[in-house]
């Protein structure tokens, strides 16, 4: 809902066009700033209480967004986005909770199943945004009241969540430690592949997706209905592959899965550069969603192989701070790049990031090959 409306509302009430995507960027900044506090809260109070608290924060953010939209208050709207991002930092822990509830061999499937919830979001979110605009006297205000209602329903459902019992390193009881120092964990090449796969995948996806409604609706003058259809299709493409992506990771491996994701991103850029017709936007955003899913699921599945269970909170927090810090910068810069440099430059600027991830995967494979040779 916020991804569809944030940039459009921002373009209408922001003091300058370059700040149009600031509400979306505020949401992502909220995620990035809340990663470590959420991790600490879960260590202290457990996942369930923090999950419920996060849903209540999302409900409050919806009410504030409704007031901000009604009063045309840009700063208040950005604040609601930041609060929604803080709730999103809690939501990002769902996938780790799911992976902890199953054996290691099923972890990738568990993560991908959680992401299937995004299919419901893809269908319901944009529809509620449009319906809310129709039912309300002021455009979009009703959409955020729906956001509050959905968040309260989520809080109710989370009351039935039961935490998995994690058996940690027994030395923790006697020494008070939480596993190896983070610096030692980060010496593994594969952990940087896991972090980079999710980080660069999220950053590029957010960069292009945040700019698309602005370019379609405000610059190329496609209708809101067409823009909604493209974003809706994109979100479906982000989450529908979760039906098979977990099994694909098990079958073909993490590195090949990431390469497929990067290939989808390259085709996305080429398709979007070929024209500004509705079909170009639609095909590019569908491929963008597919590439994101492959990269994010692969990176998420690889990460638990890099740490012990008693190290999980600090490594997960470190990973997500990279992922959502990069997404925040991508969202924040998307509006400026669109208005100052243009759509084509925005797309082409993603190519160095694709090359960087390819080099990281090659480094991991090379170091892995050298280790095998030493063992022999």
Automatic annotation (TrEMBL):
Domain Major facilitator superfamily (MFS) profile: from-to ranges: 190-376
Keyword set includes Transmembrane helix: yes
Membrane-spanning parts: 20-38, 50-68, 74-94, 114-135, 141-161, 191-209, 229-250, 257-275, 281-302, 322-339, 345-366
Keywords, sorted A to Z: Membrane, Transmembrane, Transmembrane helix
Domain of life: Bacteria
Any one GO MF annotation of this record: transmembrane transporter activity
Pfam families named among the record's database cross-references: MFS_1
Entry protein name: Major facilitator superfamily protein
């Amino acid at each position: 809902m916020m991804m569809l409306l944030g940039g459009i509302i921002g373009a209408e009430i922001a003091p300058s066009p370059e700040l149009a995507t600031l509400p979306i960027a505020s949401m992502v900044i909220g995620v990035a700033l809340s990663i470590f506090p959420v991790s600490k809260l879960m260590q202290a109070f457990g996942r369930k209480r923090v999950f419920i608290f996060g849903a209540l924060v999302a409900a409050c953010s919806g009410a504030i967004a409704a007031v901000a939209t009604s009063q045309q208050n840009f700063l208040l709207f950005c604040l609601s986005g930041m609060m929604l991002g803080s709730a999103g930092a809690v939501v990002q822990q769902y996938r780790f909770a799911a992976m902890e509830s199953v054996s290691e061999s099923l972890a990738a499937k568990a993560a991908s199943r959680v992401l299937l919830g995004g299919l419901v979001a893809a269908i319901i979110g944009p529809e509620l945004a449009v319906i809310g605009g129709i039912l309300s006297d002021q455009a979009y205000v009703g959409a955020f009241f729906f956001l509050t209602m959905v968040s309260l329903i989520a809080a109710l459902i989370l009351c039935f969540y039961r935490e998995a019992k994690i058996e940690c390193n027994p030395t923790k009881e006697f020494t008070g430690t939480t596993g190896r120092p983070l610096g030692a964990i980060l010496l593994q090449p594969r952990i940087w592949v896991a972090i980079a796969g999710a980080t660069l995948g999220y950053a590029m996806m957010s960069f292009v997706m945040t700019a698309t409604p602005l370019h379609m609706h405000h610059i190329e003058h496609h209708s809101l209905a067409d823009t909604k259809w493209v974003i809706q299709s994109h979100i479906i493409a982000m989450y529908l592959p979760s039906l098979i992506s977990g099994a694909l990771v098990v079958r073909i491996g993490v590195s090949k899965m990431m390469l497929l994701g990067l290939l989808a991103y390259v085709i996305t850029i080429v398709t979007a550069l070929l024209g500004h017709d509705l079909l170009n936007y639609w095909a590019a955003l569908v491929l963008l969603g597919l590439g994101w899913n492959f990269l994010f699921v692969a990176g998420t599945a690889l990460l638990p192989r890099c740490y012990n269970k008693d190290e999980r909170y600090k490594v997960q927090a470190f990973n997500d701070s990279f992922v959502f810090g990069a997404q925040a910068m991508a969202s924040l810069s998307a509006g400026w790049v669109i208005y100052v440099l243009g759509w084509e430059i925005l797309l082409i600027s993603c190519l160095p990031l694709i090359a960087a991830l390819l080099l990281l995967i090659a480094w991991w494979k090379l170091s892995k090959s050298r280790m095998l040779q030493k063992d022999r």
